Amino acid sequence: QVQLVQSGGGLAQAGDSLRLSCVISGGSIYTLVMGWFRQSPGKEREFVAAITYNARSVRYADSVKGRFTISRDGAKNTVYLQMSRLKPEDTAVYYCAANHRSEIMIVSDDYVYWGQGTQVAVSS
Question: Are 120 and 39 in contact (CB under 8 A)?
Answer without folding.
Answer: no
